[in-house]
Structures are given as C-alpha cells and as structure tokens.
Description:
Elements: H1 2-19, E1 25-27, E2 44-51, H2 55-71, E3 75-83, H3 90-106, E4 110-116, E5 118-119, H4 121-129, E6 132-135, E7 140-142, H5 151-154, H6 159-179, H7 187-197, E8 203-210, E9 213-220, H8 221-229, E10 233-239, E11 245-247, H9 248-253, E12 258-259, H10 266-270, E13 277-280, H11 284-312, H12 318-336, H13 342-361, H14 367-382, H15 393-423, H16 430-433, H17 455-458, E14 464-467, E15 474-479, E16 482-487, E17 498-505, E18 508-513, H18 521-552, H19 558-577, H20 579-603, H21 608-613, H22 627-630, E19 636-639, E20 646-651, E21 654-659, E22 670-677, E23 680-685
Parallel strand pairs: 2-3, 2-13, 3-4, 4-6, 5-7, 6-12, 16-18, 21-23
Antiparallel strand pairs: 1-13, 7-11, 8-9, 8-10, 14-15, 14-17, 15-16, 17-18, 19-20, 19-22, 20-21, 22-23
Amino acid sequence: xxxxxxxxxxxxxxxxxxxxxxxxxxxxxxxxxxxxxxxxxxxxxxxxxxxxxxxxxxxxxxxxxxxxxxxxxxxxxxxxxxxxxxxxxxxxxxxxxxxxxxxxxxxxxxxxxxxxxxxxxxxxxxxxxxxxxxxxxxxxxxxxxxxxxxxxxxxxxxxxxxxxxxxxxxxxxxxxxxxxxxxxxxxxxxxxxxxxxxxxxxxxxxxxxxxxxxxxxxxxxxxxxxxxxxxxxxxxxxxxxxxxxxxxxxxxxxxxxxxxxxxxxxxxxxxxxxxxxxxxxxxxxxxxxxxxxxxxxxxxxxxxxxxxxxxxxxxxxxxxxxxxxxxxxxxxxxxxxxxxxxxxxxxxxxxxxxxxxxxxxxxxxxxxxxxxxxxxxxxxxxxxxxxxxxxxxxxxxxxxxxxxxxxxxxxxxxxxxxxxxxxxxxxxxxxxxxxxxxxxxxxxxxxxxxxxxxxxxxxxxxxxxxxxxxxxxxxxxxxxxxxxxxxxxxxxxxxxxxxxxxxxxxxxxxxxxxxxxxxxxxxxxxxxxxxxxxxxxxxxxxxxxxxxxxxxxxxxxxxxxxxxxxxxxxxxxxxxxxxxxxxxxxxxxxxxxxxxxxxxxxxxxxxxxxxxxxxxxxxxxxxxxxxxxxxxxxxxxxxxxxxxxxxxxxxxxxxxxxxxxxxxxxxxxxxxxxxxxxxxxxxxxx
Length: 686
C-alpha cells in the first residue's frame, strides 16, 4: 500500500512539474538587439535558435508551441541565426517537426522561420516544415545531411548501400511532410528542398529554349539527360553545390522563401503589431533537460531496481518513493523534448499501479500484472517516439531502435535485480532491512509411504488451524506455531479463518473452512453477497460516469485516474465475492468502457458545453476577417514587390498582402482587386 500511495503522490507531483514549466514573456524588438523585459500578452511568440539544436533548444521550441496554443497566438517565429550542427538527436527533431506541423494543421497556428547566417542540418529541416520562410541578405540555407556514412552503416556489409537507403528514407519522409503543408511548393522549389536532404542529387540551373521561349529551369542531372535526348537546347547550365546550399537570393528567386532586407520588415510581412511580439524566457526545466538526457537510461534502471528493493523491505517506503521519483524524472525528460505527452505518462503510472495491485491486493490473478506490464511497455515505447505506429522508413528505424533499447533496459533490470536479490541480504546493513524467506518446515522424509508424500504433512489431515494469509485459493496457515503452505478447493477465505486440513496430495495441503453454516446464516450470507454486488455495481456506475465527465471536462487526467481507480476497485471487490463474479465484471468493463467513451464523444458536440468548446464551421460564403479588406474590392493599386503569385501591393494607400490567380507580375504594375475572401485579397493586371 505504501507503493500505491507513492504512485499517487508521484503522479500529482509530476503534474505540478508539468504545470510549473511555464515562464514569463519578454517583449522583442524586431532588430538585432535584445528586447526589453516588460511583460506582454503576445500574439506572436519568437524562438531564437543558434548553433546545435540540442535537447534544451528542442524543449524551448516545444514549450513555445504549447504556450502559443494556450495563449491563442497567431504565429510562432523560429529565428534561426547560424543554427544547425552535426550529431543532432533524430527522435527529438522528428518530434519537433511533428509538433510544428500538427500545431499548424490542427490548431491553426502559423509557423514561420527567419533565416540569417548559415542554417544547416536540423535547423534547415525545421525551416522546410514551417508554413512560411523568410531569408535575410546574408542567409545560406541547406546541407541537411552529408553523404558520409555513420558508424552503424560503416559496420554493414555494404556501407554505400546502407547510406543510400538511409538517405532515401529521410528524403521520402520529408517529401511527405512537404506534401502536408498548407501552401504547396512549386515543382522547382520542391526539387531544391529535397536536394538539401539528398547530397547525391546534382541540381543544375539552366536556361531551356522551348517553343522559341527561353525559361530558367531547376533541373537534376536526370532531367538534363532527358531534355538533351529530346533535342531541347540548354543555355548557360550552372551546377550548384552538393550538398545543396542556397543563398538568400536563390531561395527567393525560386519561391522557396521570401527575402527581407532587414528583420524589422517581418512585422509588415506578417501584418502584425510589433508591440505584441514576445519571447519566452528560459526556465529551470530547460536547464534540467541537458543532464536529464544523459541520466535518463540510468534513471529508468535505478528506478525499477528501487521498486524491487521496495518489495524486499518491510513497509519503509523510501525505496519505492525514490524509485517512482526517478522514473518520473525519466519521463519528464521525454515530456520536455516532446516525445511524451500527459497521456503516455498517465498510462505508465497506471501500469505501475496495476502491478502494485497484482502484488499487494490480488496476488495470483495475473490479469492486473499482465495489463500493468503491457501498459509499462506501451508507455515506455511511446515516450521515446512522437508517433504510435511507423508510417515511413525513418519511423520504422526509430521504432526498431526503441524496441532494442527497451529490451536492453529490461534485461539490465532483470540481471541487476537478480544480483541485488542475492547480494544485498548478505551486506551488514541490508540483511537487517530485507525480508527473510520463511524457514522450511521440519521434514520427516523417509517415514512416508515412498510415494513422494511428506509423512509429516499427512499427519495434519483432520487437524484445525488458522489461515495466516488470505487464501485465494492458495496461501499459508498456522498450526501449532508452524506456518504451512496450503490451498483451498477453489473458495477464497480471509486471513484468520479457522480451517481444517482435508487431505494431502503429494506435498499440497488442501484445507476448508471449519465453521459450518449455522441455522439462519444462509440469509445473512446472501445479504452480504447482495451487499457486495451492490457495492460493485455502484463502483462500476461511478467509474463509467467519471469517464463521461473526463470527456466533458478538462481535468488533465485527474478524473480519468479516479475513473480507473473506481473500475479497478469494482473488479477487486467482485473477486472478493467469487472468481466467477470477478470475471463477469472484468468482461463487463471491457465491453462498456469503449462504448461509454464512444457515446460520450458523440454526445459532446450536442451539449451546451460542447458547443462552446468545439469550433463550428461558418455557413455560407466566407467574409473577410478584416472588415477593412472588403472595402478594397474593385479598387486600383500598384504592386510593391513581384507577385509569384503572392506578394505586396499598395491599394488605397495601404500595404496589402495580395495574390494573383496564377499569373506572375513584376513590381510597379497597376492592378485591380478582383476578389476578397477571408483575409485573401486577389488582384489582376489593370
């Protein structure tokens, strides 16, 4: 029970840690200097990243995305200033990319990357998955990965093939991410983006004469060969570097990014108020994440070993509390870097609680132990990856690596636990703390019948003793000061019950309760059984009602934990009545729980609270979110930048973000507003 209380306290402590991970916001000036420290309520959050995207930087990105969603911000801006380095952690980056794209797709949060200096490796890939990219004049962007094989690939039979397969997997994964973006890239821009990831691709800029018209094209070597074979004339072909690095001018020219002359233009480009731009200050959790990354494997192993020590020590509880604390810290690291959410943490603690129930409350039922172990494995696997099931080769590789690391973890715990189980009881201090195994009963072997039956046990037939433990149906009884392992014929008996030895089968001592049912005891027994049934049904109803409440209310998992406790308690009380009744309740919960959850999710949008929580689509034609934009319809203006097809135009004295219906227009071209839909202003040549 100490371990169960420790699990509950640890879960509450973990929630407090997660809530305390916030930090104040400082206002940021859109210039190269520092922002002032005045607290603001921002509509834009900025994340400044330089150098290697390590665990601390990734944790800051995840916290900024969570805070932006919680505060209802419009944009998250990643300022990549000379960012990116070799040996960045692939699972951490994959979780960050998933978080960026899910925030953009599900939370309607715009993600923006602003590049300055040399941006490579993970930072370059982060810019590719953002919704919009802006480049400053001195920016260089590319070289996501080099062509040199890694250590495991060098150890393979064919390092070049192994490296090629790895590059293909990364390119396919990025192609899927680019296809999922809101604003699709042009074919030329997509070629350049994928060439950043695949150093084997040689990009050639060439002028192609087709139908008497000269056009500049982005070509691969395969494209060049095909065009030359078809008789197309290529003029001024210029090969780019491998791995591909683009200058700011090239990225802007091929519409992979938008060029800015200075950082102070970002507010105009995003049409935001500069006074509402903020950046989260560093907090204690992000400073922890560096050493938590190094200690996580040790925290997991030591945490499980301390739980084993808790099982061997009588009621001290310190080993169990510290074990749960170490495991919680290990999962806290996964939460900070975005690999685990609160759901995985809750599943992990529920797994520990189920195993504790199996050990302390319902030994021998196997159900809770099996479910607990399954929950532990599932939570540990999901806390090391940002996906549930792999959908591409990169995720398949990460999944196999995670399974291998998890297997190594359990083997280490089992080996060290077995060594500790044997060694610690022999150490002077621990031999006074550890529980000793029961002394074997004195044997009278050799006086029996020669059939393997202990004659000393056969002499117990007919004698009466007291159940020293709960018999479910096995346990121990005391007779004449001796403690003997016994079993009933299937009934469950509480500790302290008078029992009589019925017979001995080999070395199995079978007992039964002594007291026969007295007259009138039958109704009382039936009354108690009905009382147990009532308690079980009440706990079952309460648990299912709490599941409905968890769907309807936001409780950060507290109501879900209470529902789990109620449902587990119903099973426990049912098994106390009979094995059959317990099995019926387990089956009933297995059927009703998903049905209740499905019905709750269907009912939620129809309730008053659900209508307030869930966004409803607007009916009819969408109007402009900015009423001032509607007034621009049919008005004349002039383009401030080249429209390819999006850019800026000055209309009615205002600088407006506009787009054409596909045509390309140069700067200083007269235009007219053709359509205004939401915040989209469509113009055409006047």
